[in-house]
Amino acid sequence: MEFTRDVLEALGAPFPEDEVEFLPRGNWEGKARALPYIDARSVMRRLDAVVGPGNWSFDFDVLSPDGKMVRGKLTVLGVTKCDAGEGGSEDEVLKSAVSDALKRAAVHFGIGRYLYYLPSVWAPYDQRKRQFS
Asked: Is residue 37 within 8 Å of 46, Cβ to Cβ?
C-alpha cells in the first residue's frame, strides 16, 4: 500500500456524530464553549480501517520526570509525524499524555483536523456537575 491522496482523504474524513465528544471550556453565565474532540480509540480505528493494523505504528518518549509530557511519533505507511502530548490532573497522567500525543500526531495526517474549523458553540453547562446540561 502506498501513501496516496486517496489515503489522505480517507484519513481526514469526518467521523460519525456518535464518535465526536465535547469538552467544556470557558464557563460563563451558565454556559461553556463546547470544543469537539475524538478519543484515541477513534484515531486507532480510523488508522486500522484506512491503512490496516500492520501499516501504522505509534511510539512515544517521556519528556518530563512526572510523565505528564511526552513526544509521540505516529508512522503511517512509512511516513512519520511527531507532536507533543500532555497529561492533566487525571489519575493516569502518562496514559493521558500518550493519548493526547497520538491524537495530536494524527492531526498531522488529517485525522480529525476538520474539528478545529467547526463553528464555536456555547451550551448550557452545570459547573457543579462539571458537565453540559
From this structure: no
Cross-strand bridge partners of residue 24: 34
Q: What angle do helix axes 40-51 and 93-107 make, rounded to 10 degrees?
A: 40
E strands in 4-133? 21-28, 31-37, 56-62, 69-76, 79-86, 122-126, 131-132
Q: State the Cα–Cα distance between residues 7 and 95, nearest whole angstrom.
A: 28
Question: Are the C-beta atoms of 125 and 24 separated by less than 8 Å?
Answer: yes
Q: Quick one: average pLDDT of 120-130?
A: 90
DSSP state of 129: T
Confidence of residue 72 (pLDDT cuts 50, 70, 90): very high
- pTM confidence score: 0.91
